């Protein structure tokens, strides 16, 4: 979007976590990093220099976090970057921030944002880090309940050639979910009116079913389908996200995170873990509303990120052991572990 540019090539770059005996958060130079990470840092510096060259920037670097300081220092001393800064006409301040300093933000569910939900719940477009697969079967005469139907190519979110879709995507990113869904309806109604489709405008709350009924109007009109294909993909993504079971879980996450924040403030970490323990259920005991193993890993990352430094003690050690045991059992009982769990185990 106009305000946000993602660099998926750098998606796997994470600062090394300080482990026992590993480099601490104190100043470390590039030489102290593992060889693979050194190569990644040099690649980032080269990529950023190319980006800043294209934008004609003369940058001033600021850094928050150990790895960010290394990258900022490398960029400052990089020979091509020094040459570029002598001739560039535009000035910019660049702030590097270590991703591990905001894990609570990455795993929290506080955003009332449709774009975030779409990117979180729909399956990734193969080979892409920042785009999703939108099921297009609804726009065809093929009626199948098979989720993995691969006869129809999936749609996606990137619609650079469709001005209406681009405008709608901006509102998905910048508006609250309720407003964004209303924008989706408005764009659909405008497109249908332009194509003289028999649309009945209704006021009040927008439901996924209502959006689906509007989309079906385009189905048998090939010209209308072609003219508004980008827009229809974004609205289909909205419908599929709103109906997705993970979206209804989103509110459970949010409620639980708020409860945890209150509990952490009032009591010890051990009692928070003990609260969590009975909720960790194996595959056979779970209903669709219960948390999965991944959900718990996300919650644990959230709790430990929010709490910060923790005083270790017998009670906490015992509580942590119980949670570990329950999680290991749950992970071992998974009939088909997800790629993430396979990677972890």
Automatic annotation (TrEMBL):
GO terms for biological process: vesicle-mediated transport. It comes from the Eukaryota. This is SCFD2 protein. It comes from Oxyruncus cristatus (sharpbill). The gene is Scfd2.
